[in-house]
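Hi F.,

I've been meaning to write this up properly since the lab meeting, where we talked about keeping a consistent format for the predictions we share between groups. The idea is simple: the sequence comes first, exactly as it goes in, then the structure tokens exactly as they come out, then a line or two of notes. No screenshots and no reformatting. I'm using this chain as the first example so we have something concrete to point to.
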Amino acid sequence: MEVLHISAECFPVAKVGGLADVVGALPKYQNNLGVSAKVIMPFYLNKFTKNRKFDLLFQGSLALGDKNYTFQILNLKIKLGFPLFLVKIPELLYRENVYGYDDDTERFLAFQIAVLDWVLQNKKKPDLVHFHDHHTGFIPFLMSHAKKYKVLKEIPTVLTIHNAQYQGQFEYDKLHLIPGFDKKHIGLLDWSGQINPLATAIKCAWKITTVSPSYLVELSQHANGLENLLAHEKQKSLGVLNGIDTKVWNPETDNMLKKNYALTNVQSGKKFNKKLLCKQFNLDPEKPLFSFIGRLVYEKGADLFPEAFYKTLLKHDINILVLGSGNLETESQLKTLTTTFSDKYNVYIGYNEELAHQIYAASDFLLMPSRVEPCGLNQMYALRYGTIPIVRSIGGLKDTVIDIDDEGGFGICHDLVSVEDIIYSIGRAVEFYKDQKEFKKVRRNCMKIDHSWDKSAKEYLSLYKSLIN
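Output, unedited:
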């Protein structure tokens, strides 16, 4: 069985969020199950592509309205655990950032056209196409209804929704950019008077998955305007919990750590890493360390951090460390706090993959007070490294973290997103930390939890088989 994953991101090539981690890991585990899983993504101008070698597999041209572009399909020479192909369109895709440009509509539409042109000319077609989020949302529509690609319409398609808040919608003045199709099908492109790639994908995909069971339920009430559509397509939808790549995220072998550790020496290992990190950020290694890693945006509850941290640091003798970027006002407020609490608080604005690994290894608690969290991977990384997650019970956080007051619990959970909830939950953690015997027991239990892709990869395999058969 040959499966082609189509995505705007894939770790380690280009990463903005969890999408990259999923697409960079799931195919590995699928290949372990005997699936021939491959990935195709855009070729960006970044550190990874500058320092790697590629083979040219195919060269063609595509029309985007009245403009023509040449494109190349490249094959990455090094092994990632799956074959990786990249679409190179210099004028559109060859840029430093993945998203955030005025012509993102044109960029990702051209990417999808190039992918299908390449698939079309290949003698061996994939048995199934698995595409991810709105950046690839026109794939099933084009395969079924664009005149050029109708030969592909019998190939099953699976959409995975990683975050329904982002839909890629645009106005009808760009309709001419979409390859020719019978206009009687134009309704498949429309949602609320706009062309909506995610809505199109939901309508046209053979099957829909979300990145956790709870997120599928929540989308019936909070899907940024797509609630009714998702309810209508409920019969073809399935929630499959994401996993993590346990080879990349393994404190015993992680080459980004100064000292590796396993279950047998977790206490000394974390203590060593904590001492180094605290020295780097002028913190006290004898105090409990609370951390946040991620985007400093509303969806993550980060707008509440400045007030919550200020009040918490006045009340509790702890350390807080933040790694992330996003809203400029939130960034500024978080940086300002360093002058008031210079010996117990610090912030790193930006993203640093190596530092993220070190923070997971050094921290005692990880904060995730998310308003929206389709699955969340950070809490799974934290558990793997013996760091106790403090989460709002929503989406995948609800599916993966059990409160310490419940049987078998190993995290701290709260139901609402507010300054008070964050402060109260940190207070619970401080009290829990004082009971070092119980704290160390729970820490060891955290590390035993299996959140690898093994189970989820098997679920996807069953889904694929049901469609191909």
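Notes:
The chain has 16 helices and 17 strands.
The domain at 2-243+454-468 is CATH 3.40.50.2000 (Rossmann fold).

If this format works for you, I'll send the rest the same way.

G.
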